[in-house]
Amino acid sequence: MTDRLNSFFQHDADIAWQATDPGVKRKIMGYGPDLMVVRVAFEKGAVGKPHQHPHRQACFVESGVFDVTIDGKSSRLSAGDSFFVPANLVHGVVAVEAGQLVDSFTPMREEFL
């Protein structure tokens, strides 16, 4: 992956998808030490398995429909909706329809690089 830490502009066509789980792939759109933006694409039925991390996460549903669970509470979200995950809470998603999420993390997810 090209280091975009010191670059102001990112062009979607120049960023390769990275496969993560079956039916799931991501693009790291931009990052710095205290913030990272990631686009995640899901095929219908794909699962973002439950997990937790010390990063705070804000997520925008760019397209599709997702069942989102955070700390045991669930909601169905669709394009235009969003959710927030405080640090260390277990969370995950299931793609009811194919779609994309745009995640923002603070601080950045170094393990994604």
Q: How many β strands by DSSP?
A: 8
According to CATH, the fold-level topology is Jelly Rolls
**Percent of residues in beta strands:** over 45%
CATH architecture: Sandwich
**Rounded Rg:** 14 Å
C-alpha geometry: globular
How many distinct helices? 0
Uncertain segments = none
Q: Quickly give the structural class.
A: mainly beta
> Helix coverage percent of residues?
under 10%
Give the CATH level 1 class.
Mainly Beta
Whole-number tally of structural domains: 1
Mean pLDDT: 93
The run of helices and strands is: EEEEEEEE
Q: CATH homologous superfamily name?
A: Jelly Rolls
Q: Report the span from N to C terminus.
A: 8 Å
Largest sheet: 8 strands, antiparallel
Domain Cupin type-2: 39-97
Protein name: Cupin domain-containing protein
InterPro entries: Bacilysin_H2HPP_isomerase, Cupin_2, KdgF, RmlC-like_jellyroll, RmlC_Cupin_sf
Organism: Bosea rubneri
Quick take:
With about 110 residues, the chain is an all-beta fold. It has strands at about 20, 25-30, 35-40, 45-50, 55-70, 75-80, 80-85, 90-105. The chain has a single domain (about 25-110), classed as Jelly Rolls (Sandwich).
Verbal overview:
It is built from no helices and eight strands. With 113 residues, it is mainly β. The chain has a single domain (24-112), classed as Jelly Rolls. Strands 1, 2, 3, 4, 5, 6, 7 and 8 form an eight-stranded antiparallel beta sheet that branches.
